[in-house]
Amino acid sequence: MPLSPAGLGHAIARLVCASGAILTLGVSCNLPMPWHVHQVSPAVSGRIVDGDAPVSRGRLVVVVRHRENAGLALRHEEPLGSSGGFSLDPKELSVWGKEFSKHYRLFLHLYSESSKQTLWRAEYSRRAIDGSVELVCDLGRSPALGQACQVVDPTRYAWLVDAGRRDFQRLCASCHGSDGRGEGPAAAALQIAPSDLTQIASANDGRFPRRDLAEWIEGRLTPAAHGSRKMPIWGEQLVEEYARFPEAEDMVGARIDTLITYLETLQAAGS
Known about the structure:
3 domains, alpha+beta, Cytochrome Bc1 Complex, Chain D, domain 2
């Protein structure tokens, strides 16, 4: 079985000390090794259903990977509870030397006898983790409309909001403006004025329509239902961006969900 990065480092250190090379290196074998233990994921809990029925069969697997260093990763597996409930403790990684980036990706998978489904994916800086995450997971939710799991009250989590803010500034701000009010630098050149995104809830009787927004951003709502579509179909463009990954649709779902989370935080500014 191949050694983990931590195990390999310890093996090298033991070999150096045993060989006597430590004398020429001028280092004491009694000194602590330069390992740093970091919390790299939040606590995650939730319940998995398929429609109204709890999902109690299968294995829940959480994978945490450093965004740039493939060698920094962990995998944890546990069975589902009888009611489909689960509770995952925060995960830690031992990192040798300097950690050049603090960013990680978390994947939550459900394995059954014949299939694997990605339930939730998140990308974040470990320094921004703030509190445990509660999920509501419905296997009937199409990955193209986001992820099978949605965060309960996602606006409580600064790291989710920040991820959505970054995507908004990159994908949307040129037309809708950095504040979402529809006055971006490209707006004057458009035949149809961009929408004021701070008024979404107000235009829907105070309800923030997450599913409708996911369909619109992903590209499933047709112009016949919502007038002429001039906005890019971000679902298609993001799939192309992630084409080299086997989990492309799931990754698009994660991006759409966090973008909608950020849009939800803009509603107070427009009320």
